[in-house]
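Translate sequence into structure tokens.
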Amino acid sequence: MKLNRNRFCIVLVNICCLAVCSFSFYRLLFFNDFGNKSLFDINASASNGYEEYAVFSSASGEKTETAQKSIPANSDSVVLGKVLEKYISPYTANTSYKNIYLKNSTDLNVDIKSLFESNLSFNLKDNSAPQVLIINTHATESYLLQEKNFYDERDKSRTTDNTHNMIAIGEIVANKLNSNGINTIHDKTQHDYPSYNESYSRAAKTIISNLNKHPSIKVVIDLHRDSISTADNDKIKLTKVINGKKAAQIMLVMGSQSGNTKNFPNYKENLKLATKIQSKIEEKYKGLARSISLMPKNYNESLTTGSVLIEIGTDANTFEEAAYSAELLGNALSALFKEL
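Result follows.
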């Protein structure tokens, strides 16, 4: 009986030792090795000096799940919402002709067949002088630095870092055009910093200054990115796989003389160019471009008869996806401009 009691004590001691060792190992693994970091901290992108001073978004009109909000151990990385990946088909547009799809948000009747088949008022045959000007009215618009299914407080939608904002995207398009023999100037002025207000007024001065300096310029391209979010603060990224790689969807946004916009009598000349760009993008990269968005706005497009505003992705797309789209856009524009 005494022997059995001794054996029982030995077993009990062994069990206690095992429990203490297991607890110590758990603390070593999860507290010492990872410190105060959570998986959110490890996967989240660095802030990289982002400065957000304005938030603008468009309504998606789509129902989505309520975001699962989480607060990691590090309060600097509070998760604000999900990143939801979607594709917006151009083929549901209310107006279409061949490879051209138009979402008409004005009170105008638009004959895109006639516009597409009409000649432009200019050509780009003389490449000894600048033919194309690229600007960025909202130059500090930016993207996520890495692909993930959430965004947190460190993922800002604007940055003055020209290696990760619309200046970088504009440079990709400009380089592609120049390498294909289309003489292109890229003006890198940040019109929306330090103040977002009157960005378009400042951009107008930049456009006029460049036109005065280089009267040979025929086409002005204003590159932006979109921003789409749900009522639950989830962000929407728009992608299309092209040649096995994800690209951010592109959209041409065109102004017109309608609604309260009264100073834009030549808007159809710009719309002619937009239909030809849309058609060429669709021909080369099917489904990459969303429908052309025709709005009762000006967007500084009244300053020339060859002005277009092009949005590349949203603030939930990665910079890599946007950069790839900029390459594809540059290819399409180069092919079209050689035909003009």
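Note: The chain has two domains: 1-35, 83-337.
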